Amino acid sequence: MLALSTAAPQTVVPQASAYDTYYRRLFADVPQAEEIFRGSGVRQRHMAWDPRTAYADGFPSIGPRMRAWEEHVLAMSRRTVGAVLDEAAPGELRDRVGTLVFGSCTGYAGPTPDIWLAKEFRLRQDLRRTFVGHMGCNAAFNVLKTAFDALAARPGDLALAGSAEVCSVHHRPEITAEQAVVNALFGDAGAMTLLAADDGGPGPVFLGTHTETHTETTHAMSWHIEDTAFRMTLSPYVPFYLAESIEPFVKRLLAPHGLDVGDVRHWGVHPGGPKIIDFVGERLDLTPEQLAPSRAVLADHGNCSSATILLILDRILREARPAPGEHAVLMAFGPGLTMESALVRF
Questions:
Q1: 249 phi and psi, to 5 degrees?
Q2: What's in the keyword line of the UniProt record (predicted)?
Q3: How many independent structural domains does the chain possess?
């Protein structure tokens, strides 16, 4: 990984203020709503649509939401693509960018965002582009794996790979405890990486990935388009399903590289909610320090769907400052129930 950049909308929404001034009234008929918001692990979120103002006069139809998604996905991605290109691919080196893979599950439009980004940054006309849509919180791994395949086929190229999500445009008038959980967790963010084939130099280097889909739990998580907005369902049993599977799942990622859980210093656990971090940490016997990047991203950004795991990797790089040769495991979970992971060497 040659470069990594993250971005978020400028509007910061404090969790306590949002609950007291908006959500308390909205979820007045949900007895556990305050407990849900207070116990979410979220301190603040960056949101393109601040719920305290965006929904003050009602709930827009799907059209305005999709236009807002396109506007804000492009705004965040201009920042992240520009940053990684300026950092690692100035001048003529940009001509080596032969692949762009972009993911988002919070909206649709054509031309897709990757086309606009390629145009604005004057990337090659023969650029290979892939848009990964509607795969949920684990989509960044599908984005990265597509880029890895492209680099394996054309090792002289560079690849841009990232995502952006605007979850805030999908607030809906459904007054249930399940939707209170969704409204308490999700925020907006984007991230972009610039990748090259490994030349044996310093890290971060992605050594491998591992995927499992547990189709017996397909009912546990869903994401559908409805008349007013996208609707997410999230079973409270998801942390329990993950806890049952996480240890053998991680072992299958690490075994081909001769590693075990105890050999991994750094961990990025997608914060689908605080219980997921708790349960995964307990099953893998991780320390509070190892879980700190995941908890910090949840506190500062909420769950930003596919962008979240790259926010956590950025936090590990900036704050944990891994030593050369140390390893990290990154993991995220989405509909299916799908479990994705990657092994990184710094």
A1: -60, -50
A2: Transferase
A3: 2
